[in-house]
Batch of 2 targets.
Target 1
Amino acid sequence: MSDNTLLNVEDLVVRFAVKRSRGFGKNAYLHAVDNVNFSVKRGETLAIVGESGSGKTTAALAVARLVKSYQGKVELNGTDLLHLSDEDLRQARAKVQFIFQDPYSSLNPRLRASDIVREPMDSLGNMTETEKSDRIDFLFEAVGLRPEQQRLFPHQFSGGQRQRIGIARALATQPDVIICDEPVSALDVAVQAQILNLLRKLQKDFGLTYLFISHDLGVVQHMCDSIAVMYMGKIVEYGPRLDIFNVPQHPYTQALLSAVPSVDKARRAKSRRILISGDPPDPVNLPDGCRFANRCSTAKDICRRDQPKLDNGVACHFPGAKL
Amino acid sequence: MALLSVKNLQIEIKTRAGVAPVIDDLSFDLEAGESLSFVGESGCGKSMTALALMGLLPEGVGSVAAGSITFDGEELTTATETRLREIRGNDISMIFQEPMTSLNPLFTIGEQIAEVLRAHQNLSRKAAWNQAIELLDAVRIPNAKARVNDYPFQMSGGQRQRVMIAIALACQPKILIADEPTTALDVTVQAQIFDLLQDMRRQTDSSIILITHDMGAVAEMAERMIVMYAGRKAELGPVEDVIANPRHPYTAGLISCVPHILSTLTEEREKLVEVPGIVPPLNDFGKDSCLFASRCQQAQAQCLEARPPEIEFGPEHQSACWRAQEL
């Protein structure tokens, strides 16, 4: 662990009990996040990508302690967040803030914009009222909203402006890490660009660290420094941006990248669309071996028997195999 | 003659503030077997166009105010409801955006596919059921014989969308309208659905109208595209031409505001081009000016004074912009 590491997640497991009787009183568990490790350096962006049900949002929620983890470590600046309670936890929450996916349902419709941004400072900070007002003025300007808009209610804003309020709220307590959970996927394409540019500008100006959750690989490519690709609760590939996008090693990553439609003629000519057949396995009854084995065209016996470990940034028995 | 021909179509909807033209003087042709795509932000009239073609405009709210829609020589805007019922699902059919909500949860998927065949092709219960199984197999649902008895909740999103495609294609329609068929789905599933649609098109030789906001999807799926803005046609042309050389600032903005994955990525990441602001509110629609002017960096005095005409670039490429020549 280098000195620059801000957030370090080790062996994180999140599981949910599901009602599916397996004999008397025995609970079945769904492992939404299964032994996940990653770390984020200060001022950088780590993207977690994957399809719905891959566990990317659950992992982010666990980092922010918004869901209960079963085991593992989440270290922020060397302090394990998972074992904090009461006042320590309150202080820690101020350091990890969230930007949510849907700007329509994540703002309280009965509060004015300024009160929405003030709320985290009331509950998590120790500022005086004047300091809070000054900070609200500052944040509104930083996210590109006009001062007179502080008095308005959420329904008077457009989707993009609402997301700006959400960003201002996340910045209010001067957090170390901001978790962006699909921050633009509910927005129109032209508005997406405005929000993405704003997020990058804020990162540069304030030295922010992002944990960026997205399923849109184009957006991820633009925003992140490194990437973790998740499939069925596991990280299947983890590495720097250019490595993942230019030479993907895991068959799932290759398929995922090839599935993105592109306007670039050269890319379309070069890449062959890899279709993965079938559906992901039942998350409660996972297979013994590699979780991608039943959809992978290069799978051999060993893939169905042994679960591959994340080694050199890829969890596959045959990394780099051509599909 | 074109299979479908839309001329000067004007659709108005009633709002509390008055009547607004959500589609304003739209004309285009669709040839048999062709793949055409509508692109634009939400609220630009893409879905309204699709509903108008299907004769499914919301009753009492939206209506065709002027213009014509001719399908195979037959006028659709004045056709009776009975005749439209015959055409819908048989000659023109549609796949909706939300596979989760567009199937009836109370019937098995087999019954829902067979219903179309019984209604339009007078097949017997048995024959329709057997064909439903074949169709499920054709849209690549494994073990079709058993799955035909499933209810929609037993299927994943991708499978439900494939059932929707099976229903839409059951009578081998001449035109298939796909309204954002993959926005609710994951990328790998999207790739499967696109592949399936392309295959089906090749086999049945039907035309596809794809409505989307994703330029990448247009580039992969369509031959020609229409860019819509605020109910008007901003640009029309062959996909390759338009993407390589957009003649309308809105098209250029739509292409460059999205971070694309290129064939080789480099360290460099430029700031995304922003199209500032949002689509104008409905009561601004229909003004005699360029409706994009307020968001356009190239706007001049002329743009605010009169609606731009459609300027031709070659036989197939048109753009409605006063400064299209300079772009």
Target 2
Amino acid sequence: MSFFSVKDLRASTDGQEILQGINLDIEEGKTVVVMGPNGSGKSTLSNVLAGHPDYQATGSAILAGKELLNMSPDERAREGLFLAFQYPVEIPGVKVLNFLWTVYTQKYPDRSKRKYVSIVEFRDFLFEKATELDIAKKLLDRGLNEGFSGGEKKRLEILQMAVLEPKLAILDETDSGLDIDAIRIVARGVAALKKQLNMTVIVITHYQRILQYLTYDEVLIVSSGRVVKTGGPELVAELEKTGYGQIRS
Amino acid sequence: MARFAAKKTSKPGADFVNETYEHGYSFGTQDYSFQADKGLNVEVVKQISAMKNEPAWMLNNRLQGFAEFEQKRNPLWGADLTGLTFADLSYYLKPTDNQAKSWEDVPPEVKETFDRIGVPEAEREYLAGVKAQYDSEVVYGSLKKTWEKDGVIFLSMDEGLANYPDLIKEYFGKVIASGDNKYSALNTAVWSGGSFVYIPPGVHVKMPLQTYFRINSEAFGQFERTLIIVDEGASVHYVEGCTAPQFSSTSLHSAVVEIVIKKGATCQYTTVQNWYKNIYNLVTKRAYVHEEGKMVWTDFNMGSKVTMKYPGFVLAGKGAKGEVLSMALAGAGQHQDTGAKAVHLAPYTSSTIISKSISKSGGRASYRGMVHISPQAHHSKNTVVCDALLLDDLSRSDTYPIEKVFNNQVEIQHEATVSKIGDDQLFYLMSRGVSEEDARKMIVNGFIADLVKKLPLEYAVEMNRLIDFEMEGSIG
């Protein structure tokens, strides 16, 4: 079985079936791009994999031998799944630094396994990563995403990814709403983590822009809650020419 | 530091959801040297005054208060007070005959109370600097030497009356008249305990003055009376925090706090209220602020069955400032009816009221605020911000703002928001590996973070622990 294997994944909300049998197999360390028109179910796929309570899901999604679908979102995170949100949520008053320190210490409850033993050391690490991602240090003293710009929120998602060091990262339209410089910074951050951790990545995107800065192994086209086409990186160029219309028909 | 809140070592069980948890230290105190009969009449009032060897003017004051208490009816607004039966309450109780002079003199039963609350060993030494009110009398307390050197007076109100009768006569009942409301009248009639504080001109008291008190007798009302005078250019931070053990029937706490802030002086008064959940907490607090003076009320209400409390200020001098930072947590069976009262009487005065409330398990939190800007108060400013957080569909939040503005050269702002902990917020935090319970705690602590920041550090830490404790098992 592959490292991450999704079989006949179906998900519905309010009695409506959004995902109608998704199949997916990804080998460890590979990057898969999921593309598709608006309303195709791309974002639902990421939310269902991360365990959003609005969806009832059937089928299976097995990460490194463990079934995710019967786990709560926090359990899935502890198994190494990370979702970079399309619309990161504001949590007023929960300071970014304190939050990430909590997340970090919960990930490594055993102190001897921690690379950073004190919050001071951890902060230094965070500052370094923040600088790489062009995140102003002062943002780390604010509430989580509180009053952040769209671009700041997206970059903070990547910073959180760097803290959690996931096995599987899902980027849900991380490139939307970013200018070209920000896209480059975010893509560079993801690429660095991928290399460092041999991280498996699912890039969900609408556009090709972020793909210019990432290497990827496979492309899936999703439409009406199904995978309608799979191919190599050349599929992106084809899509550029023909648009989704061709593929759907 | 254990000044408020039960510290639980055991994990709350399923019944905690129904708010039936026990603090784990329900115990009685039998060794009272005097306990008044239940019920209130002129004789009880006279008896209290006689026990305390008070001057005649104070007795007259009490009798006037009693007459006004009898005439006045309960407010027709606010929380439901029908569960309160005045005839079932005891109005005066004196645990020991004399105030203890040092820790060795503190009676063993009182020490046990501190034991059971979990006051750490190290802190008992520190209690030498704390006014600890045990039931209705201050049984223990000694001033820090540095305060004495600066001429700072920090006594129980009874000691204050004995030692500084003229000062007290000049100010007592002048900020809050006994007839202000039914409960200020009741307090005037039967007050005992509370603090008297005087800060001389130009003295800045760096360490907060702290009072630690608790109610510890069934069906017993507690009526502290506090008067704080901050003289010109001086500053002080006064902190009161409280906790109460479990009772089986309702009890009444009805305090009056009067503060006089002279020219250019500053006072911050912080309350952390965590009475046990069968107590009616009906408190009147007000400051009279002279030119360029500043009053800050930081008011945290977590406990009690019913709280009605609207800390206020009268901005009487040009450029005076007032601030109320109010936080209320209402759980099952609780109604927190809290807010503020801002009266602007002079030009260039400004006030800010920030209220945050959390309602859960069917609790009810109300913001009730009155802003009054008189014709003389031109170029004055007022800002009111009310944020409510509802944790479930059973709970309730209301806002009752009143603004009376009699001058058109003023700036008035009012903002109010009501929010719920959304699934999206929980999902977001949980997707980072945080459990649902921890995620809820984070959201709630985040909601009040900017107010908690205003507390002295050890109180802020305890406040977060208390919120965590209150949130435990609250996932429905």
